[in-house]
Amino acid sequence: METVTFLSLISVTLGKASTGLGFTVGDLIYGLAIVFSARTRFQKSADNAFSSYAILSITLVIWAIVDLILVLSVRPMMPLAEFGGSFSKLFLYSFGGIFVLNRLMHQNSGDIQHSLRLMLVFSTAIGYLAMAAQYLNHYANLEVPVSFIWVGQGDTAAAAGEFQLAGFVIYKARGLFMEPSLYSVFTVLLLALDRADSPRGSFSAFRRSISIFSVLLTFSLTGYFLLFTYLFSALLRRHRFTSFELRSAVLLSIALVALLIPAADLIYEFIIQRTAGLLAGDDRSGSLRWLGSYDTMVFALRQSPLLGSGIGFLDILPSINGIEFSYQTDVQEFVTSTGNIQIVPFYFLGALGPLGLIIFILMVLPIMKARLTYGIVFLASLFAHGGALEAIFWLFLLLGIRLRKD
Known about the structure:
Helix content is 65%, strand content 4%. By secondary structure, the protein is mainly alpha-helical. It has a domain at 112-275. The strands form two sheets. It has a two-stranded antiparallel ribbon. The radius of gyration is 21 Å and the shape is globular. The protein starts with a helix and ends with a helix.
């Protein structure tokens, strides 16, 4: 097992576990991964992907500081504490990523793949065990401790991850994440990495099928879209699925359809109607994610077209100026936002202006050159989570760049 890879993956799963001190448990673990990585010597590599990332990372950090100085010259009353917290995370993940990527470049591909597969198995197993515990607690009146898995990630009692299906309570798969959609993003990215590095499918087809089925059990529209992207990109790559994979997919599909046939109305409301609502802009979560992020970004650019809001100020800029965005939901209610950014490209453009977006694009570009399959899934994931300053974005960016070496 490759220690740095595994520690970095653990940091992703704990990226929402707050310590109450302005940083998360995931931030601390990623910092530990950087410490381990710093022991690896820097050596000249034939592949310029590492050098390109290092230059872009340093440029991004320097531009964030310069951008702050210029923003404060225009808006001197901005709270510096917000910049300090966000900049420290940008420095940790962007600049610290230089050491992590250097370590990855020196590691054997097989060792990295072993860590990725181990994490996929571990995360999927936790997802099933947590669901089983919730079902036992509800239907057998047991008290199996399960909420400790999501300690620090918010009010676990208020976010039980459940819904009604034909009179029964159904729990969503979410693994080590309190939010099912984040679990699905994490799982599909791991699947895509394994598929990209293992064209012959050396990873057990059965375990891969179990992981795919766990994404279906998240009942997350985001997860379904990302899973479809993964499967579609695999077909684009003309991957020849094994007969066992095909049989497993057919059996799992039949089982899922059999479970959902009694709930045709729910399928219509949960998937079809929600998808239509998302496209129409009247879905609650979709409005906050897409329209809220877009309006927040546009507002920042209208204030400073070349500078953006500055790191740390993007979420709070509308509220500071007394601006509130309102959206009508699919239940004829209004949801409001005073600043929301859940789409990674929008964050870089809104916070750091056009130059920030250019640096972001140049960072991501090597992934598309390395493996188109993983690149498509990675790009899709950037519109499914708001982790611009979290390990879930930076680590999978580094792993994608590492693919170029193989």
